[in-house]
Each structure stands twice: as C-alpha cells, then as structure tokens.
Amino acid sequence: MNSQSNVKKVIGVVSGKGGVGKSSVTSMLAVAAQRKGYKTAILDADITGPSIPKAFGLDDKAQGNGEVILPVVTDTGIRTMSVNSLLENDTDPVVWRGPILSGVIQQFWNDVVWGDIDIMFVDMPPGTGDVALTVFQSLPLDGIVIVTSPQELVAMIVEKAIKMADMMNIPVIGLVENMSYFVCPDCGAHHQIFGESHIEEIAGQHGVDVIARLPLDKEVARSFDRGMAECLDVSALADMVAACLRADNPHKHDGMPKPEGCDGNCSGCGEEGCASRK
After folding, report:
1. What pLDDT digit, counting tens, does each position of 177-233 carry?
2. By the 8 A CB rule, do 232 and 28 touch?
3. Do residues 78 and 42 make contact, with C-beta atoms less than 8 angstroms apart?
4. In principle, which of 81, 169, 178, 270 could form an S-S bond with 21, CB 3.0–4.6 Å?
5. CA 11 to CA 30: how far, in whole Å?
6. Using the 8-state DSSP alphabet, how is residue 155 labeled?
C-alpha cells in the first residue's frame, strides 16, 4: 500500500455463487459504517461483474497521474474503486485472463490513494477462483462476511466458502442471509419464498454466527437500480458492522503474499520487502 493510504480494517464480502445479493450487502454495510461516523471505502474486486458504481449512481471516472489513482467518492463520502470507474463505457466487457484480473486487484490496493480509512469492504467475485484467491492471499483481511440465501443449494456452497477461509487462515465474521423472507404488504405476515432455511444448521456445524437476515424487498432492488444505495434503511446490518469493526486477523499481511515459511509471527523476520502488518 502506498504512503498516502492507511486502511485500518479490511473486510471481504463473499458468496459461494452469484445471485444472492453480495454487492448490495457490501454497499449496505458501507453505508451503515459511514452513517456511524467511520471513514469507509469499497474496493470492487468483482472485476468481470462490477456493480458498485451503479449502486451509488457514480458516473465520474477515476483520475490518476500514471503513478497513483484517486478513488471515486460517493455523495456521503464513501471512497470507491471499481473497474467500471476506469472503463470508457460501463457496458464494455472485461475479457481478461486470471493473472491480469489478479493484477488489477493488487493495483487497486497498492496504487489507489485511499487516504485514512477506518474500514474497507472488498466486494469479492462469487466462487473460489483466481481473483478470490488473490484477495485472500494478498490483501490484509481482518475477516470475511459470507452472504447467502435460503436455497438448499446455496447452503452447500456456503460450506465451500467457510472451508476456503479456514484453508487461508482467515476468520469468518458471520453470515448474512439475504432474501430470507418476504413481508406481505397487506397483512404483514412473513413468507419464506425460497423454502425453509437451514443456514443455522450449517453455521452451527462450523461455529459461525448468522448475524443478519434481510428480507426480499423490491425497494432495495429499485434503490440500487437508481443509484440510491445511500438512501436505504440499513439498520438491520448494524450488528454486522459492529462485528466487522471488532474483527482482527493476527495472520494478515499488508498487500503482499506471505514469504515462504512465514508463520505470521513477525518478530525478527528480517524478510526484505515484507509488508506485514508489523
């Protein structure tokens, strides 16, 4: 990370598959943290499916001088960086191979002038591919939030995400079950559109908490389509934001893969160029 940036807390927002509302949850977490008075940022690591600029109604492009890049700032002051902030047209496809995608993530972390940030949320691509692996290995993650929905298939994929985090020695802060239920506008009854959820069982098996359940709400989708994420009621994610701010990963390294043989104990390491947290 460059000398003009200081990010205190880095949280990855993960889903095992697409279509569960990971980017919307990322945006709402950032809005909730910003409203609490924390300086907040979003690194959009979903390179081939970037949606953060759209969610916040950001039309401005990122500016740079060939050495550093300035983030695009939302109306309430959330600093963002996304590949769509660099492309001439938002609809231009990103047809890049894995190593290039991974290089972009590292550039977003190292070359963007983030300034002083209390908490950064990283909107991860779905699955456990190259980009997700790059984020896990290269960014100093304090923990991850896993976003899921009630379908049985998704519950199975959640286990994959938890196991990957365990393999990479990154704490799972908790689960957000999105589209958990639908509230009838006429009678107020809660309906489980996707059937009965089994996420508590999966979470319990791995010692992870389900910290938030979000309803299926057309107003949320409408607000994101209109670029009005900062107008949403995000109170349901207050406990998750608090958990993210408490998270701490003693094994994290600052923007570089761990040197060979590194055990996370930085005392007397002497590894030249190692940008560990210590």
Report:
1. 998 888 888 888 888 877 777 778 878 888 899 999 999 888 898 999 999 999 999
2. yes
3. yes
4. 178
5. 10
6. H
The DSSP annotation for 25-46 comes to HHHHHHHHHHHTT--EEEEE--
pLDDT for 257 beyond 60? no
Distance CA 143, CA 170 (A): 6
Say how far apart CA 132 and CA 126 lie, in whole Å: 8
The amino acid that residue 217 corresponds to is: D
Cα dihedral 250→251→256→257 (10° resolution): 180
CB 156 within 8 A of CB 148: no
Which tokens go with 256? 């570089």
For the chain, helix, strand, coil in percent to 5 are 35, 20, 50
Q: Which of 118, 105, 103, 11 is nearest to 50 (CA)?
A: 105
pLDDT tens per residue across span 83-113: 888 877 666 666 556 667 778 888 899 999 9
pLDDT digit string, tens, across residues 22-71 = 999 999 999 999 999 999 999 999 887 889 999 999 999 999 887 889 99
What is the residue type of 239? D
The length of the chain in residues reads 278
Residue 212 has φ and ψ, to the nearest 5°, of: -145, 145
- Burial class of residue 63, CB neighbours in 10 A (0-12, 13-18, 19+): exposed
